[in-house]
Amino acid sequence: MAEAIVSAVFERLxxxxxxxxxxxxxLVVGVNEEVKKIGTTLCTIRAVLADxxxxxxxxxxxxxxxxxxxxxxxxIEDLLDxxxxxxxxxxxxxxxxxxxxSSLQPFANSIPRLVGRRGIATKIKELSESLQVIAxxxxxxxxxxxxxxxxxxxxxxxxxxxxxxxxxxRGRDQDKNTIISMLLSENGQERGIPIISxxxxxxxxxxxxxxxxxxxxxxxxxxxKKLWVNVSDPIDEMRIAKAILEALTGIPSGLGELNTVxxxxxxxxxxxKFLLVLDDVWTEDERKWQ
Length: 290
Prior knowledge:
By secondary structure, this protein is mainly alpha-helical. It contains ten helices and two strands, in the order αααααααβααβα. A two-stranded parallel sheet has the order 1-2. Helix 1 (2-23) packs antiparallel against helix 2 (31-55), helix 3 runs antiparallel to helix 4 (104-137) and helix 8 runs parallel beside helix 9. The longest helix has 40 residues, at 60-99. It is elongated and about 65 Å long. The two termini are 34 Å apart. Mean pLDDT is 76; it is low at 99-115 and 150-155.
């Protein structure tokens, strides 16, 4: 479990670091070094996790160490969500500021933006320090270091569908009702297509939550078209576009140009209320989303 969490956090850290570099979003001085330090430390810790997870069954101290590592990894994951949101918000504010006639308004907006970045930077430094302590403690256990792992070869991820037995799901009513309320709300329709993101570590039930919302009676009655598409990694825009079109028409697409597929999708959904669920999404590349 710990190995999966640490690996997921490391991959997200790498992805968001690239996103930040591409968008030119800066934090306070010294934070880039802390981010690199976190990445390096995670790599070092990953090399001993296979042995640690075997030994935790009999060694309480090892289990306690792994629990602390998981808690810090979850905290880093939460921070990465906050950081990613800040990057997107910064781009939106920058775009809005450039279109305003007043030169004072962008300056006013920059103050809370700067405070927000400093807050994220402070949290990054604190989590980096916590991770360093945990990394040093691993040496006390004399774990076996595994340097032969091959991260480039991974088993194919299972494809998901919208089928679920809702009667077996417990404890998700509040989350389900919150999302359904957002879906059925007419607020913000003029701002374009509303997007609701369900974020979190692997295995916490994001797909299950999406499934029970997708199959809800109110949702079925509200939307004229409902589509479920598995994205997976790496993202393939052409495959996804064809999957959307096939879900709309019920006919496999033999089209070879992405633009032609998008035109057909547009014709199928124009003037209709539709719900599109993109499940198992990993990429944070805004160009793919566009």
